[in-house]
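Record filed below.
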Amino acid sequence: MLILGINSYHPDASACIVVDGKLVAACEEERFTRVKHYAGFPENSIKFCLKKAGAHIKDVDYIAIPREPNARLFNKVLYGLKIPALTLKRITAWRKTFDVKKKLSEVFDIPEGNIKAKIFKIEHHRAHLASSFFVSPFEKAFLFSTDALGDFASTMWGYGEGNKIKVLGDIKFPHSLGFYYTAITQFLGFLKFGDEYKVMGLSAYGEPEFEEEFKKILKIKGKTFRLGLEYFVHHKKLIDLNFEGYPEIDILFSKSLENLLGKRRESGEPIKKRHENIASTLQYHFEKVFFHVINSLYDNYRPHTSSLCMAGGVAFNCVANGKIFDNTQFKKVYIQSAAGDAGLAVGSAFYLWNHVLNNKRNFVMEHAYWGPDYSETEVERAIDEKKNEIRERGFKIEKIKDKDKLIRLTAGYISQGKIVGWFRGRVEWGPRALGARSIVCDPRREEIKDILNKRIKHREPFRPFAPSILEEKTGDFFEKTHPSPFMLFAYKVKPDKRKLIPAPTHIDGTGRLQTVSRKTNPEYWKLIKEFENITGVPVILNTSFNENEPIVNTPEEAINCFLRTKMDVLVIENYIIYKE
């Protein structure tokens, strides 16, 4: 049985294919369009997934869509009566979403009647819950999803056991932890869709000076939370995302927020201590409310499990995630690599396979390598097209069939302080580079952060880089040992190890680590192991292989990024491009 999951006309458009209950392929459309958070129809991702499964659209049995227009219909109608323009735009967007067979017939140039698949609509947050639980290693778990908005809810919690999910409650629009975090992110001058992670990094530089003010912005109410709506405008006017191309979002905060916190920071304006302290308070107060909600709901429902599955955009808050073990009763946490809206494709497909069709679970997402890969011929063709330019720049091209030799050479370059582009295997599923499309460096060199930013990344200096560590050595360098294979937890680096790995250690002593398993990415594990053999340090600095763009997908994109930046070495499958 083939199930195609599609997240379309929504930020982070994506697709996946599930064959007999096992994930075969999954990818975000941005990797093909080169538009960050692309929000249109994921036709390239669909074609890739079907190709990977050796199937045609005519072979698909079910199409799962993570949107249900009838969910909270009364609330939607009531809100629509207040703002008719929003209702019209939403109806237009929904119609496009549910005309999926018509769109697929155009993409594949076949009559619509030749597409036999049945379409299932799954509520947004149910798909989020499923995206984590049904691919987790847990037989039962407490489930929690929170983001800005989906099907008129911002938060949902429930209980998963076996192949079933029981929804226990939700928080409806307009109250939203996602809108809370985005509004303050905008207030601090970061206006692009998805900029919240920047403010999370900035928060470590300040102190929570504005706690009393933030208690008015986001309030604890009973077991959950409420927004101080006078500080927001999303419930009063048309707040809409661009459903084609790059998603753009209007300003969410009101003039009252400036009256409370002072003048907003304009984009490009210098960051002052007040801004750092606002960011710090934002994160501090978020954590306070987040842990209150998680603990209150756990105590109320007593799910008889110490396992937690989380999803939704807020699940990318790795700073809070790293504190779950100290602030809750949960001992095990699973968050899949595409926890945000891209993951809805996987969630809707598995909700259909497990919960609706009542099939037993037979898959665990242990790694993130579900995207495209490229043959030796495709790599050779890409290199050959740029061969003259590569050699004119003084680089040597060498093919090395012995993988162990290739890894030893690469580890040696890293230990010498070289910046290395690492392109091997299938593209990662989710926003993190996890050792398939990565730039890797020596974590012992504190200056490497500035070098990376000056030569390649061109990003804000307060944003941290990430450490990739051998999974079995995690406890030697970090104060927590719970696996973090998808780079979604930030742990404190042990004080005696901070001088050993200063480059990926943030100003607050934490690292947003990736624990690397020999089982799930043996070559990347061997690279780190070989670096340890040379230096005694089982850690390398890992950042995404890109330059202010989506992570590179194809060999051509990798070579172009390598040439226009100032990397020292490029490893691309069995080829190494370097200066002697």
Remarks:
- The longest strand covers residues 140-150.
- Residues 376-578 form a domain with the DHBP synthase fold (CATH 3.90.870.20).
- The first helix runs from residue 30 to 33.
